[in-house]
Write a structure and sequence with these properties.
four-stranded antiparallel beta sheet, 240 residues, alpha+beta
Amino acid sequence: MTESKPASGKAMKPVFLISYPKIVLLYPTFLTAIIAGIVMLVVGETSKTAEWLGVIFLWMFGVNIVVLAFDFPRTTSLTLFFLIMAVVLGLILTATSFPSFMPSVYDLLTKIRPHANATFYFCFASILAMIYLVVFVLVRFDYWEVRPNELLHHHGFMSNLERFNAPNLRITKEIDDVFEYMLFRSGRLILQPSSEPRAFVLDNVMFINRREAEITEMLGSLQVRIRTDEVPPSTTTEPL
């Protein structure tokens, strides 16, 4: 009789895979809004504080939107992005420190005075918090479960379930965006069951390296043991 067991002899825990929407990558802006609202309450809604917090919030929000809008598949593209940001910030600092050097730029910058009170920041954070709550509820009704012998897809409010063979499961890991990997260690997993002509693509899987290692360990540690119910032959000793 054949048995499939992990090589360690212990039961392997299933691996759960959840594909999140990109909106979760806005959490740096979410945290910035909360911190800015708290600072405004503690320090007071003075003009100078409001301007600096407004600039910081808009800068963080702009960078976050760039992360959502574009992919940075290589380190070189990330380096180019930071280089452009450094040049822009350098020009802004130069224009504000030496008004006579670039008077037109200085005049434009002096007209940009973003103001926002604590209520604005808390309202912004509350909107994102409600979206996050809905997202984390919805993903509980659409996720994948990898077991040693099968791949399960749970989806729908009625707990619909699809089963696929897992022992010969092919896994492809792709990290298409360096920023997304930096924020949530996320990436793309492509699951290809041997019995299915189609592949299942899971975007924005958090902690993708850990999930891939867990699946590889689970599917690679299975062993087949042969057990027989026959009684081993007894040994006899001949008289001398």
